[in-house]
Amino acid sequence: MRKLIYGMNLTLDGYIAAPGDDIGWSVPSDELFQFWSDQLQATDLSLYGRKLWQTMSSYWPTGDQQPNATPAEIEFARRWRGMSKVVFSSTIDKVDWNTRLVTGDAVAEITRLKAGDGGPMDIGGATLAGAAMRAGLIDEYVLATAPVLVGGGTPFFTALDNRVNLNLVETRTFPCGVILTRYETRLRPRG
Asked: Which of 24, 25, 58, 132 is 20 to 30 A distant from 156 in Cα terms?
């Protein structure tokens, strides 16, 4: 069974985007960017919701060709282009860059993908990750919490029907003040 990881940059008050889908507060340091690039390298398949897909696909296909691209950005862009991706959307009809489009039941497809062979998968996008979270499909949460409050926007976590118990597996502080925390989902005791 494959592992499913949900990780993103978020504000201290728990938002992945401020009102108006503003992510201008989230400017990662070189060290944090390298962490996310290393995460991408260790990922076998990325799962995207439509909005995050549109954000990523508007820049990373040519991110390595930008005149001021850093070596880390060049490496990330090449990894991103080459890796397998799945986009879940009922409103777009075409995807590129080693990507497959799924227009049907996202939870059923994620469940099928998790049951298959292969390395870790990551999931991004609040709506898609929220559906996977409610279905109990997330195995690990990676939070890169920035020292900023935005007061509203798109939350990292969704409303849940049941409590999810977690085990802390890593904490790290980056020079930019971002605190990284990784949690694994704790299996529910039977009985």
From this structure: 58
